[in-house]
Amino acid sequence: MQNRFVVVTVAALCGVAGIAGCSSAPANSPQPPGSLPPATAQVTVNGQSAGTTRAVACTQDSWTHTITTGDAKSGVKVVLDTGDTINATSVVITNISDFTGTVLENKIGKAEASMIGTTFRVTGTAQGATTQNPNQVATANFEVKANC
Questions:
Q1: Phi then psi for 49, rounded to 5 degrees?
Q2: Which of 61, 101, 128, 134 has the most CB atoms at less than 10 Å from its CB?
C-alpha cells in the first residue's frame, strides 16, 4: 500500500511540474547580430570605441526619438525621425575620441539611420574639431547604437 502511495505521489508531482514548465514565460528571443541588449548604447568615432554603456536615456515624442549617452563633458545626443522611414535629423558628439562635432540633416555632415532588431543604429560623418586642433575644421566617421 505504501509503494502505491509513493508512486501516485511521484506521478502527481511530475504532472504538476510538467504543467508548470509549460506555463512558464518563454525565453527572450535572441537579438540579431549587431544588436545590443536592452538599455545599452555603444559609440565609435574614427574607429575608436568608447565602449558599451548603460548610461543611455531615450525619450519619444510622437515620431521623434531622442537618444542621449554620457554627459555634457563627453557624450552623444541623437535625434531620429521614425515616421515613414528612419532618419537621423541631428547628431551631436561631444569629446569622444578627441572629437567634438555635429550632423544636421541636409546642412552639416551626413548620417544614415536603421534598425537592427530593437537597436537603433546611426552611422555617418560629422563635422567639427579635435581637441588638439580646435580652430581647424575636422570630420569624423561615427557609429552610434542604442537599444532603448
A1: -80, 135
A2: 101
Tell me whether residue 30 is exposed, middle or buried, using C-beta atoms within 10 angstroms of its C-beta: 0 to 12, 13 to 18, 19 or more. Answer: exposed
Asked whether the predicted pLDDT for residue 111 surpasses 50, the reply is yes
Whether residue 52 contacts residue 40, with contact meaning beta carbons closer than 8 Å, is answered with yes
Tens of pLDDT, residue by residue over 48-85, are 999 999 999 999 999 999 999 998 899 999 999 998 99
Please answer whether residues 68 and 77 qualify as being in contact, where contact means their C-beta atoms are separated by less than 8 angstroms: yes
CB 105 within 8 A of CB 76: no
Place of cell 550632423: 103
Residue whose cell numbers read 512558464: 24
